[in-house]
Amino acid sequence: MVNKTRRISTVGSVAAVLLLAAGCGSSDNGAARTTNSVQPAGAGKALGGAYDTGYGAGGYGAGAAGAGSGSDLGSGSGKAASAGQLSVRDIASVGGVVTDSAGMALYRFDKDTAQPPKSNCDGDCATVWPAVPADDASAAAGIDAALIGSVDRTDGSKQLTLGGWPVYRYAKDTKAGEAKGEGVGGTWHALAPDGKKAVDKKQKSDGNAGSGNGMEMGAGAAGMNMKSGAELSVADNEKLGKILVDGQWRTLYRFDKDSAWPMKFGCLGACLDTWKPAAAIDKAKAEGISGKLVGSVKRPDGSEQLTIDCWPVYTFTGDTEPGQANGHNKQGLWFAVTAEGKKVPPTA
Where is the composition biased (Basic and acidic residues) (predicted)? Predict the structure, then answer.
């Protein structure tokens, strides 16, 4: 009798857990459902040997792998070489990026704060994203020296800030001109000269250089009529039909190796260098799609990723202009997403 009672109790506990996570079910059964944030199944477990602490393959990078002898990133101590003279370098698809004296891209972290300056990247995070010391930093043409400052880290060292934002390098950038850290985890971004995100300034610049409609029309971008402030909308792609795009008119994709139920991630580690998790949005700022299909999921690094019909969605670094959909049917695994939350067929 005691054993029977325990079995009933155990079943009840399991059922309760499933009900808590039941906001997202099988994504292709056509049923409407809410989109609760769900911790991905398998979080904290080894995934193909790449996942470790949550700061590794899950979005802060793939450990310190790639930090070769020429990268000046230290030896896992979380500290980096001094920046020297900061300059601005144009990097394709990212824009004008602040680099150190060796030409290495510098980054900011959305979970930090600029007013007041505060770093929230320590421990394993700081191994993958080494903090740039504040000493010996100077500004070249294009960077206002008044924006350069410092912030005290938890270990007592002083970290360089730009426009108030703590400054980092990325361990997987191994040569000048790379910006592999752009968009990692949806929270890491290459720095613009004023401390803002370089990619945002590029998008704004491209839009101002367009044809008077607020954006530069890329291949397949015809029919993109998003209202100002929309963070998710539907675009008429000349080849794929009506597909979802983010607030910067970038095509959104889903990955067949992810799972909507149970919600799991198949894109980790080096995958995130090419496919950037789309940041979660306010569903009130979505247009052309039912709010019931818009949700979010917590990635292993703690960042919130946008989900459509319970599937995590991404942008593709191979799309360099608004409206492009070069990632569709990549490897037979990546697909643009329809306004109904389904994947666009491979033959579209």
Answer: 194-205
Q: How far is CA 139 from CA 56, 98, 199, 284, in A?
A: 32, 10, 21, 41
Given pLDDT bands bounded at 50, 70 and 90, which one contains residue 205? Answer: low
| Residue 226 domain flag | yes
**Claim to verify: residue 163 and residue 229 sit in the same structural domain:** no
For the residues 252-272, what does the mean pLDDT come to?
91
Total-model pTM: 0.47
pLDDT > 70: percent of the chain? 69
Residue 9 within a domain: no
What is the Cα–Cα distance from 169 to 126, expressed in whole angstroms?
10
Instruction: State pLDDT tens for residues 338-348.
Output: 999 999 998 76
Residue 51 contacts residue 102 (beta carbons within 8 Å): no
For residue 228, give the 3-state DSSP assignment. coil
246 in the same domain as 283: yes
Domain that holds residue 54: 23-61+215-348
